[in-house]
Fold these 2 entries.
Entry 1:
Amino acid sequence: MNKIINQDKKIYNEKMRIGFFLVLIAFLATACQSNKTIPYFKNIPKTEYNKIEQAAYTELKIKEDDILDITIQTADVNAASQVNDAATNNSIASPGSGQQRATGFVVDKEGEVELPVLGRIKLEGLTSYEARNLIRKKANEYFVDPTVQVRFVNFKVTVIGEVNRPSSYTMPSERVTILDAIGLAGDLTIYGKRENVLLIRETNTGKELVQFNLNDSQLFKSPYYYLKQNDIIYVEPSKGKIAAAESSRFSVIAIIASLLSTAALIITRL
């Protein structure tokens, strides 16, 4: 009986030692990551502060399925109300947003929007500024000195992976950078792999994949630094996160095994 008890204790102690070492390895991996990879833009010499080149901003182009907020104002408040009321009452499900709905005018498969009074106008391929000028030119035929505003309603980016608040975010402005999106998502977690942030962009020919290194100041020069509609940002977990998950799993296994060994010991005594 004593031999069995001693053997069970030996097995239990061995499992506890394995669990301890796994937790220690996970801690050391996380500590190494904290020292080496957490700070952003580490390769910027202090002498070069305020001298970093940045990629030129390219205005967003209107695409099929975009939802646009289009308003027309004139000296006569009621003159363009038919157009503005139509935008307010036109509730549209945003593509890829589940039950989320937006109000505005959708760009159809022909790249056109249909506005009350003004009729169908082709806007695909134009910037919001160019669309505004085109609609104002058309509105001049019906209203006196109209002013036109065009805004993207569905400028949405999705941030997933090792960030504090993974979600889809509707942007209030067209000029949005990858850092803006990460900031909205609450920044990377301690386990986020800063040297491997993936941008997924939908194009006419398929998906485009671009990797970013947040530790490298070259990020500012990337032509992908500014985001477009429906971009997805994925932050990969580091080895520290994987090691921590593995250590937790083995710790649970060790606890269960020790409980089973204790139960078996009690049964043998009975």
Note: Residues 30-35, 95-99 have pLDDT under 50 and may be disordered.
Entry 2:
Amino acid sequence: MPIPADWPTTEAEALAEQERLRPLVQAHDDGPGDPAPSALIAGVDVAYDDDHDLVAAAAVLLDRDTLTVVEQATAVGRIAFPYVPGLLAFRELPAVLDALAALTRTPDIVVCDGYGLAHPRRLGLASHLGVLTGLRTLGVAKTPFTFDHHEPDAPRGSSTPLTDPATGEEVGRAVRTREGVKPVFVSVGHRTGLDTAVRTTLDLAPRYRLPETTRHADSLCRRALADARRTGTTAN
């Protein structure tokens, strides 16, 4: 998994790339809102070993009806970018793109473990991935990052706006996927409206706080990273 030759290597280059790509995000449904009953929904996630300069990405494809895994793929490579808050996509995307490319079927929508428009420059991992691939994407994060929200009501399905304190803009929603359990933070990625992103997240989380897409991808990328360390796999 070679890192692309033109991939940003400095903070200034990465910031400039985010500013270039941000106007390309389509923050609305492109075509039917909710995924069709027969849709294939992918989850992507990443695990790191900074000491060994390794990153492992997983892409797991689920059947929309049954939430069963129908295909999965991993990619292991070198970490593409230093850790800088707000620029995590530049660490993760080369591996994520390789894992998605290894799937034999194209997902109808991709769920990212992270942010989309809920990002200081409105280009989190989900939006960045969507613009690069043209796929419909959304982000489901575990924390609200730098944004404000009120706690949703206790019942499953309750939600409240996630807002930018500087502008008051709604950048996502805090969504209760399990009654009485802390919410997740859903935002538009690309070619997906916020209402659709929230409904899709709830459909993918019938039993647990996190969507099944994220749960499967998280487990798979951690196993791939552990296998790479155990076997002494080195990145290209």
Note: The chain has a mean pLDDT of 94.
